[in-house]
Design a protein that fits this description.
Layout (H helix, E strand, L loop, with lengths): L1 H5 L1 H7 L3 E6 L6 E6 L21 E3 L11 E5 L18 H6 L2 E6 L2 E14 L12 H14 L13 E8 L6 E12 L1
Parallel strand pairs: 2-3, 4-7
Antiparallel strand pairs: 1-2, 1-5, 3-4, 5-6, 6-8, 7-8
């Protein structure tokens, strides 16, 4: 049971804002995920609370900390040294996706797989991610539009009852560009 190996009790002693741990085997991504009271604090603070330009991998404060929302948004910096979420932009290449089509999400309530299905460049000046959907048709239309614009092709099927995660980092195609990577959160690992 990976959750026990991660040791959420120990992590919560260090920082009670911890909500999970995200890992992609074979990449730099292997970090705790925190959720603050806003989306600013963890841009410039480490998991330990220490001020640092690396920031943390953090969940949008508008999401529930148990990943129960229809779409959970997770942010991280695109650092030049390759740390944090910089490897997300590598998903612009089909071969990279083919090598790393899933992520692991460990939480205090269980371990999950995130099966990636799309990645797109978005304008950070606009609210490009959605939290709410009118109905199943609206959700499915959103998924279909993401897959059509994706920088890679995926056979991952997203059903109307699924929950998704959006992982977001800076990209440099234009001023304030972001790369958003989308995956469906599947049951226990």
């Amino acid at each position: 049971d990976q959750t026990n190996e991660i040791g959420f009790t120990s992590l919560e002693r260090i920082n009670p804002d911890v909500v999970g741990w995200l890992a992609v085997e074979g990449t730099e991504i292997d970090y705790p995920v925190v959720r603050g009271k806003d989306n600013d604090f963890y841009l410039r603070h480490l998991f330990t609370g220490e001020r640092n330009k690396l920031g943390s991998i953090f969940m949008d404060y508008r999401n529930h900390s148990d990943f129960s929302d229809k779409n959970t948004i997770i942010y991280g910096h695109n650092m030049k040294d390759g740390s944090m979420f910089s490897s997300l932009t590598k998903y612009k290449d089909q071969r990279y996706y083919d090598n790393f089509p899933t992520m692991l999400l460990y939480t205090s309530v269980g371990d999950f797989t995130i099966e990636l299905f799309a990645g797109i460049v978005v304008d950070g000046n606009y609210e490009s991610v959605r939290f709410d959907f009118k109905d199943d048709h609206d959700f499915q239309s959103y998924i279909d539009s993401l897959k059509k614009k994706s920088t890679f092709e995926s056979d991952t099927i997203v059903k109307s009852g699924d929950r998704i995660a959006t992982l977001c980092t800076c990209s440099y195609e234009f001023n304030n560009a972001r790369y958003a990577l989308y995956g469906t959160i599947k049951g226990q690992v």
